[in-house]
Write a structure and sequence with these properties.
Number of helices: 8
Radius of gyration: 22 Å
Structural class: mainly alpha
Order of helices and strands: EEHEEHHHEEHHHHEE
Shape: globular
Oligomer: single chain
Largest sheet: 2 strands, antiparallel
Number of domains: 1
Strand order of the largest sheet: 1-2
Distance between the termini: 56 Å
Number of strands: 8
Length: about 280
């Protein structure tokens, strides 16, 4: 940081700053957490196996026909979606992950997080950014970020499916209704993903932010009530973004280990169930 020079009360040069705190811990943690999550996701997607067990199915594989432990996931979906051609080796989890993935990638909070963590633009408040003489904001290559308002509709469309899978996990075919650790995890995951999605800035604008008057008529007043509720979620958007990201992974890890027979599932159907790995 010896190349730093005073500019408008700040310092010039990548990582240069007058701050005396450990400002780098935040972006370093963010980069490590994101990288860990992505590595696991791609590993799990290409495994294409051990994604369902008993009444549970991993959030990575919603819409996919369930298989027995050890059997590869098929390219056929539960809903009338186009299946993947047989010559494509990719897992259906990659196709399904790309849809909410675009929503998260273009999310206002995540943009701030990974711009700083991976691209240093800037790595922290009042910290010198990566030299970018031709930086044009979210234009040119970054113009795709404007798709966020449209990817929101995809994320909302997936929520009923996530809730269906979560509620379905309370019914084990052949054993009836019950509650298991996996059921609770999937339910919590659905709640957090719903909170994250409806805390989105674009959704908050749609339900009330676009109005100039909240008391003009009954419809405007209803929009105000919705806007107020969404504002509560929006104020905690960062927390829901992180929590929902990791509950997705936790659900997959739990169901994977249960499917492999490596851990038991405590439930009301049998007390303790342990799937046999193939």
């Amino acid at each position: 940081m010896s190349n730093a020079s005073g500019v408008g009360g700040h310092t010039k040069g990548f990582g240069a700053t007058l701050r005396t705190d450990n400002w780098w811990i935040g972006p370093a943690f963010t980069a490590g957490a994101f990288a860990t999550w992505l590595l696991y996701y791609f590993w799990a997607a290409f495994q294409n196996v051990y994604y369902s067990a008993g009444p549970y199915v991993s959030p990575f594989y919603i819409l996919v026909e369930r298989s027995e432990p050890g059997e590869l996931a098929s390219n056929h979906f539960l809903l009338p979606l186009p299946g993947l051609p047989a010559f494509i080796p990719a897992s259906p989890a990659l196709l399904l992950g790309a849809m909410p993935g675009m929503f998260r990638m273009t999310c206002y909070y995540y943009r701030k997080a990974y711009y700083r963590a991976f691209f240093g633009t800037p790595p922290g408040c009042a910290v010198g950014p990566v030299p970018q003489a031709d930086y044009r904001g979210e234009t040119f290559l970054l113009i795709f970020q404007n798709l966020h308002r449209y990817t929101l509709y995809i994320a909302i469309a997936l929520l009923p499916i996530l809730w269906y899978e979560a509620l379905q996990s309370f019914y084990w075919p052949g054993k009836g209704a019950g509650v298991g650790v996996g059921s609770i995890l999937l339910l919590v995951n659905a709640v957090l993903l719903t909170s994250y999605t409806f805390g989105c800035h674009a959704w908050r604008h749609l339900v009330g932010g676009r109005l100039n008057c909240f008391s003009c008529d009954g419809g405007a007043e209803a929009s105000y009530q919705a806007w107020t509720a969404m504002s509560w979620l929006n104020g905690r958007h960062q927390e829901f973004a992180w929590a929902s990201l990791w509950t997705i992974l936790l659900c997959d890890v739990y169901i994977r280990l249960f499917s492999m027979g490596l851990i038991p599932d405590i439930n009301t159907w049998e007390g303790v169930s342990k799937m046999g790995g193939h």
